[in-house]
Predict the structure.
Amino acid sequence: NAGVTQTPKFQVLKTGQSMTLQCAQDMNHNSMYWYRQDPGMGLRLIYYSASEGTTDKGEVPNGYNVSRLNKREFSLRLESAAPSQTSVYFCASSASPPGLHEQYFGPGTRLTVT
Amino acid sequence: GQSLEQPSEVTAVEGAIVQINCTYQTSGFYGLSWYQQHDGGAPTFLSYNGLDGLEETGRFSSFLSRSDSYGYLLLQELQMKDSASYFCAVRDSNYQLIWGAGTKLIIKP
């Protein structure tokens, strides 16, 4: 049972480049989330998906887009990376309704934008 | 605005008891959760309080007072493996988890 998986684990981008972070869960959860975590700070919600086919903005959505490809997969896209997007990105999933239940996290993607 | 306040760092001795406090100010309140994160790792769920009172899970307990907008995590019989950061998080009226900045727990032998 893999839980929540994320790819890649590490990435270095130049300013202006684009990339997509992939996330998949095998726990049959309806809700999925993307967070970023900066040094010495808690997690900040970028986007979430309460169920397949729906996505909503979180606290810090600017500069990001998401796609809920199916029930298992939720991707995060950076269209034009900026140094301010250097962070650790975590994907998570939970049973419905969103935010109420225990969230399960992937191992994270460590992104550096130069 | 929405905010959760917790101490940035707490130091304790192996075998002792430590309490990590969390006060919150959010738009709506639907429960207080605690997560543990080891350096370089992902957060993992520890406990949830939806109602006032104490919840106990093994060596860990969590308390909530909604009238005081306050909660705490109590760790007993501390072990070196408990060295980690601990985050409180509140579910607000928008179905989002709002996170505190985390408390780094340092355990000394």
